[in-house]
């Protein structure tokens, strides 16, 4: 069984979180037996205003149990040369690429870092200092040692859509909220009521804000034609015949982390939601474990 | 089942949600997520009733626990009375769900809080401020005078025994748009005459708010309240008249 591990950090009473996955059964046991070396490696290189507040483990399949352990700052950033006078929970000076055994990459915005980790050299290039590189190597080594994984959306069979019908707005609000989606059963696509499906290629002009991921409300199959409904409606209703729109089940795979690279770093804060990666310097140095 | 104010999960914002507590029934119960102080104890074991607010987009709805929708935002204020310790429900119930046939726990008088919870009779949401440390008692036995109609020169009833409850958080309404708002309520004997002033216009399904009787709490006091709604309800097996009040002036 896979559990989702969420690490909650606080910095100046604002927060950010990092999420990883681990192939264990018991969230409470996994969290309570986490080694001090792991937690130290995740916090010690951050600015001293950053502390690990809580860890939450949640089973992502039945019986869906969760467990939350409050750390309350027992693990805290150790860098005294922080330079931060305010929260940098929405910006960072470094972005990692965590790489899995199947070469899947996941971007990790490292937050709560001292500003001095990335400096601008005499040639105008942004470079990071060696202690930062060493600290990140230690952290990722702990991830690898503990079997931490990242999540990847897989490519299950796709059902080609014959058309999607948005019903007319009627006096019955329930009817106006749903869209019927017609799909080809022979494509091997088998939606499950209550399950999640992913849509791609939605015509944004005729189906504005159509959900990328939606829950299947009903599903009926007659012969080779299936009809599922999802929560989406348009005032006035509409019937469309999208030529490029496809649907598939939302399925994830979990792959253990095996290495990392610095994707970007900058003396200026980068990141989402307020910062942007565009225009930032791409890392010239890859670091292997 | 109740966490009794323990830390159940870590959230950025609070909200209310429907929860399926029972493994043998589809019945739903509403819960509120609210912020607690850092010194609270967390849940001591794994459970199936954590927040699902971040799972709605991509995960499958578990059979028991929090429903994905609706999840209206809530300010994070603690409920009243606030609980500060204890735990209701067994580890098995928290992990596998309770049975609809499980007996209900005994509750603290005048509340819906189980005795398995340690109760704190402090209000955290403001409103009436009487009692120790400047906070008001949420539930208080007292007496009142009733003036009918509001502003009458002399009372129509005096020394009426009441159970007085501050209820500011749940009483927030958007009066007069088809609802009423209140800050407190009192429970009085069913035989007491106390009237609200709400009426309905023929052929409309909305409530037109008008002042009801005036209530002064405590008897002889200067704090004045207007009655906004009166209804009968059952409290511990006794039928009482519950009058919802909006404070008019502090005493």
CATH architecture of the largest domain in chain B: Beta Barrel
What fraction strand of chain B?
A: 25-35%
Strand-pairing-aware structural class of chain B: mainly beta
Q: Structural class, from secondary structure content of chain A? A: mainly beta
Overall 3D form of chain A: elongated
Question: Any overview of this molecule?
Answer:
The complex is a heterodimer of chains A (289) and B (251). Chain A has 289 residues and is mainly β. Chain A contains four helices and 18 strands. The C terminus of chain A is likely disordered. With 251 residues, chain B is mainly β. In chain B, a hairpin with a 7-residue loop joins strand 10 and strand 11. The relative contact order of chain B is 0.13. Classes of the chains: A mainly beta (289), B mainly beta (251).
Explain the layout of strands and helices.
The complex is a heterodimer of chains A (289) and B (251).
Chain A: E1 3-11, E2 14-22, H1 27-32, H2 36-43, E3 50-59, E4 66-70, E5 92-100, E6 105-110, E7 118-120, E8 126-128, H3 130-145, E9 148-153, E10 158-166, H4 173-176, E11 178-184, E12 196-200, E13 213-215, E14 218-222, E15 225-231, E16 238-240, E17 246-249, E18 252-270
Antiparallel strand pairs in A: 1-2, 1-3, 2-9, 3-4, 5-6, 5-18, 7-8, 9-18, 10-11, 10-16, 10-17, 11-15, 12-13, 12-17, 14-15
Chain B: E1 14-20, E2 28-32, E3 65-66, E4 73-74, E5 82-86, H1 91-96, E6 117-120, E7 139-147, E8 157-166, E9 184-189, E10 214-216, E11 224-235, E12 238-249
Antiparallel strand pairs in B: 1-2, 1-3, 1-4, 5-6, 7-8, 7-10, 8-9, 9-12, 10-11, 11-12
In short:
The complex is a heterodimer of chains A (289) and B (251). Chain A is mainly beta.
Based on the model shown, name its key terms.
heterodimer, A: 289 residues, mainly beta, eight-stranded antiparallel sheet, 18 strands, elongated, B: 251 residues, Thrombin, subunit H, six-stranded antiparallel beta barrel, four-stranded antiparallel sheet, 2% helix
């Amino acid at each position: 069984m896979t559990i989702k591990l969420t690490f909650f950090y606080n910095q100046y009473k604002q927060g950010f979180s990092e999420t990883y996955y681990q192939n264990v059964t018991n969230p409470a046991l996994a969290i309570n037996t986490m080694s001090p070396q792991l937690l130290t490696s995740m916090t010690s290189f951050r600015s001293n205003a950053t502390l690990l507040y809580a860890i939450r483990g949640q089973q992502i399949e039945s019986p869906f149990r969760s467990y939350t352990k409050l750390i309350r700052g027992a693990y805290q950033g150790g860098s005294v040369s922080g330079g931060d006078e305010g929260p940098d929970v929405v910006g960072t000076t470094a972005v990692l690429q965590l790489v899995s055994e199947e070469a899947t990459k996941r971007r990790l915005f490292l937050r709560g870092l001292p500003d001095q980790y990335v400096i601008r050299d005499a040639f105008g290039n942004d470079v990071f200092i060696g202690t930062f590189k060493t600290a990140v190597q230690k952290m990722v080594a702990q991830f690898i040692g503990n079997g931490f994984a990242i999540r990847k959306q897989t490519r299950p069979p796709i059902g080609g859509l014959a058309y999607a019908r948005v019903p007319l707005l009627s006096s019955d609000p329930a009817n106006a909220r749903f869209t019927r989606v017609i799909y080809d059963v022979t494509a091997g696509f088998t939606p499950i009521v209550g399950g999640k499906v992913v849509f791609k290629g939605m015509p944004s002009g005729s189906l504005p804000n159509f959900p990328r991921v939606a829950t299947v409300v009903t599903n009926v199959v007659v012969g080779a034609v299936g009809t599922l409904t999802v929560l989406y409606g348009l005032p006035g209703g509409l019937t469309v015949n999208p030529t490029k729109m496809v649907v598939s089940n939302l399925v994830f795979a979990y792959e253990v982390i095996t290495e990392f690279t610095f994707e970007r770093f900058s003396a200026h804060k980068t990141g989402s939601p307020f910062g942007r990666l565009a225009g930032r310097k791409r890392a010239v140095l890859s670091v292997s474990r | 089942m109740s966490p009794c104010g323990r830390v159940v999960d870590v959230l950025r914002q609070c909200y209310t949600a429907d929860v399926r507590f029972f493994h043998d029934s589809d019945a739903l119960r509403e819960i509120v997520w609210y912020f607690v102080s850092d010194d609270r104890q967390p849940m001591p074991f794994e459970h199936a009733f954590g927040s699902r607010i971040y799972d709605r987009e991509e995960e499958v709805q578990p059979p028991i626990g929090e429903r994905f929708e609706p999840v209206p935002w809530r300010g994070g204020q603690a409920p009243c009375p606030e609980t500060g310790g204890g735990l209701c429900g067994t580890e098995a119930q928290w992990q596998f769900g309770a049975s609809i046939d499980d007996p209900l726990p005994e509750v603290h008088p005048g509340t819906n809080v189980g005795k398995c919870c340690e109760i704190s009779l402090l209000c955290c949401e403001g409103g009436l401020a009487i009692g120790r440390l400047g906070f008001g008692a949420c539930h208080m036995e007292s007496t009142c005078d009733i003036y009918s109609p509001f502003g009458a020169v002399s009372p129509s009833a005096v020394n009426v025994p009441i159970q007085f409850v501050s209820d500011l958080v749940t009483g927030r309404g958007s009066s007069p748009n088809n609802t009423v708002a209140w800050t407190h309520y009192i429970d009085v004997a069913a035989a007491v005459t106390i009237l609200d002033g709400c009426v309905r216009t023929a052929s409309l399904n909305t409530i037109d708010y008008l002042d009801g009787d005036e209530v002064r709490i405590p008897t002889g006091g200067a704090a004045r309240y207007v009655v906004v709604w009166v209804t009968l309800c059952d409290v511990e097996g006794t039928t009482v008249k519950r009058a919802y009040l909006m404070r008019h002036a502090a005493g």
